[in-house]
Write a structure and sequence with these properties.
GO terms for molecular function: structural constituent of ribosome. This protein is of the alpha+beta class. The chain has three helices and ten strands, in the order E-E-E-E-E-H-H-E-E-E-E-E-H. The strands form three sheets. It has a five-stranded antiparallel β-sheet with strand order 9-8-7-6-10, with no helix packed on it. Strands 1-5-4 form a three-stranded antiparallel β-sheet, with no helix packed on it. Strands 2-3 form a two-stranded antiparallel ribbon.
């Protein structure tokens, strides 16, 4: 059970759409809601026994068990002492409820194009974990990263990838459901295609954009070699 000061609790719309106050006429606390109703069953007037390390001022009241989750969240935000606290999970898929989630109405469905793609060596692939397929899933740190394929297996592809902020290249294996072709080299390939087209048109028109080979005249002056002066020791 958790106890909080009554004057410091502001109930939000999710809890009861009202603010808890003390009624000066009556001894018990009341709750003014939007409907104008007084609900005394939400707050108990009696205070039960608590551990010795918790001191209760006179303006503290005891909250019922059904608000335990709300108070637990409130105590975490305001760094209040907790009686029950679970340890943080340490699995490789911890905290990935949103990262590995699928789009709306696509849960569990794997498009057929995923298995029809062709991967070759030196291809750039983008790692995007699919939450509905747990087989062949790598750690969360590799999610949303781009790697280079160095080996292609029957149902997976091996790629070179950096681990977090380290420059050391790691060789990992990903199933084809967890990777997608990267679009990063598309702009470079498009630029190369346009450059080749411009070179072809310039050659047909006999127009040279770059200077051709020619002699450089010095007007009978000897060239001078520029080098840094020696360091005085």
């Amino acid at each position: 059970m958790y106890c909080l000061p009554l004057r410091s609790i502001a109930w939000n719309s999710n809890l009861m759409a009202g603010t808890a106050i003390l009624d000066p006429v009556d001894e018990g606390p009341t709750l003014d809601t939007a409907e104008g109703k007084s609900r005394r069953s939400l707050v108990s007037e009696d205070t039960k026994e608590l551990p010795n390390w918790i001191s209760l001022p006179p303006d503290f009241i005891h909250v019922k068990e059904k608000f335990k989750k709300k108070l637990h969240r409130f105590s975490q935000n305001h760094h209040l002492p907790l009686i029950h606290q679970k340890d943080q999970q340490k699995g490789k898929e911890r905290g990935t409820h949103s990262a590995f989630s699928r789009p709306f109405r696509n849960h569990g469905f794997v498009p057929s194009a995923t298995y029809m793609r062709t991967y070759r060596k030196c291809d750039a692939v983008h790692i995007k974990e699919m939450g509905s397929i747990h087989k062949g899933m790598s750690h969360e740190c590799y999610h949303s990263k781009t790697g280079r394929v160095y080996n292609v297996a029957q149902h997976a592809a091996d790629m070179l990838q950096t681990n977090k902020g380290k420059i050391l290249a790691k060789r990992i294996s990903e199933c084809i459901e967890q990777i997608q072709p990267s679009k990063s080299p598309d702009s470079f390939l498009q630029h190369m295609k346009e450059d080749d087209q411009e070179k072809k048109e310039a050659k047909e028109k006999d127009v040279w954009f770059k200077p051709a080979l020619h002699f450089v005249r010095t007007n009978r002056e000897r060239p001078e070699l520029l080098e840094p002066p020696p360091m005085n020791s």
